[in-house]
Structure formats: C-alpha cells, structure tokens
Design brief:
- Helices cover 15% and strands 18% of the residues.
- It has a four-stranded antiparallel beta sheet, with no helix packed on it.
- Strand 5 and strand 6 form a beta hairpin.
- The chain is elongated and about 160 Å long.
- The protein has 218 residues and is α+β, with helices and mostly antiparallel strands.
- The longest helix has 25 residues.
- The protein contains two helices and seven strands.
- The relative contact order is 0.07.
- The N terminus is likely disordered.
Length: 218
C-alpha cells in the first residue's frame, strides 16, 4: 500500500504529522546536546538579604538552609555614636613615658658602654711542669778505647754561598761522600757538626764521638 496515498487521503495526513514530529524532535535534541558547551551558563541571581537597621539584634534567613542568624550592624548615621568620651581621653593623656631614659631620636642619648680590660690572654699558655733532669749520655761501649772512625775529612762546600750552611766531603777508600749535619754515612757514622777546619762524627754502634781534622792533601 502506498504511504502517500492519493491526495486528501488519510495516509497523507499521517505522513505530514510524522515529518513535523521528526523536525521538532531534531530541534529539541540539537539544543539539548549539540549546542556549544564552551558558552558559560548564566550565573544564578544573587541572594539579596535585607534587614531593618532599627533592630540590631535581628536575625535573617537567606532561604539557602537553616543555620545561625547573621548579626546586623548599623551603617547609617543614626546607628553610630559620635559622642566624645572625655574621661577616656584624659586617661590616655596622663600616661607618662617611663623608658630607660634613652631618646631613640638622638644619638647623643646612647648609654656609654664600658669595655672591660683584658686581664688574661685569650689563649693562655699551658704551664709545663718541669720534669726530672735528663740522664747523662751512656758511656762508650768500647772500653778501654774505641776504634778510630774510618773516614777522612777533605773539605767543605757552603750552599748557598754566604749562608753558613756547610756540607762535608768525606773519603773512605775510593768512595767519596757529601754529607750535611745529621746525615748518616755508611749506616754507622752520623755527622754531628761541620766546621771549616774539622767535623764531629758519632760512631753510633759504639756510642762514641770523635773529631776529624781537615786533611790538607787527601
């Protein structure tokens, strides 16, 4: 059977009704779901609370819920008290400044600071108790006479020149030694002192010191 039917038929009227209903439904859906979501919605109207000024202790309700009432404060000239309280002003004027006597606006009123004198050094020198006297050096270990030191003193070298610091030239067989004060030669002889014409050498195994003269022609 044809949906449109013949002109003026009942089926044609139903078709037009269906088309109109579809257009209305599409417009409704568009405005509900497909319109621009970035457009901000209109904010709800603010709630305005008014209260009579003549009743300071009155409570008002905003209609948003049940809660404690807000205290109304008068903002007109009738609610303010312009009276001057002379007694309270006189009390504040009678207060006297009782500070330390220093004027914060004057550098001359600063108190004089007395710096105490140092009666002891900041770092006291420790007192070292005097110990017992040092024992005498042990006697030679080669009685009745120690052997002669087998070294020959052939000359000195002053380094740097004019400094007074000398080095001694020592000869033992074909070996030549250059030694300063405190050096040990041949693992046995320690140089005690060096002079221009002689040196003092210690024979450490025998605990014996000997003076070696300068040889003119070594």
């Amino acid at each position: 059977m044809s949906i449109l039917g013949s002109p003026g038929s009942e089926d044609r009227k139903k078709f037009y009704a269906y088309v109109a209903f579809a257009v209305i439904a599409a417009g409704y859906l568009y405005f509900q779901y497909f319109r621009d979501s970035g457009t901000p919605a209109a904010p709800p109207p603010p709630v305005v609370v008014t209260a009579p000024v003549s009743s300071p202790g009155a409570t008002v309700s905003t209609g948003a819920g049940v809660g404690t009432g807000a205290k109304v404060v008068g903002i007109t000239s009738a609610a303010l008290d312009p009276t001057l309280h002379i007694d309270a002003m006189l009390v504040t004027e009678s207060v006297e400044y009782s500070g330390t006597g220093r004027n914060i606006f004057s550098a001359m009123s600063a108190p004089v600071v007395v710096i105490p004198k140092v009666v002891a050094p900041a770092r006291p020198v420790p007192v070292v108790a005097a110990g017992p006297p040092l024992p005498p050096p042990p006697p030679p270990t080669c009685p009745p006479q120690c052997p002669a030191i087998d070294l020959k003193f052939t000359g000195t070298l002053e380094t740097p020149p004019g400094s007074g610091s000398r080095k001694a030239f020592l000869l033992h067989g074909d070996d030549v030694w250059v030694a300063s004060v405190g050096d040990i030669v041949m693992r046995r002889y320690r140089i005690v002192s060096i002079a221009a014409k002689s040196i003092e050498v210690e024979d450490m195994p025998n605990n014996n010191k000997q003076t070696l003269p300068l040889l003119a022609n070594p």
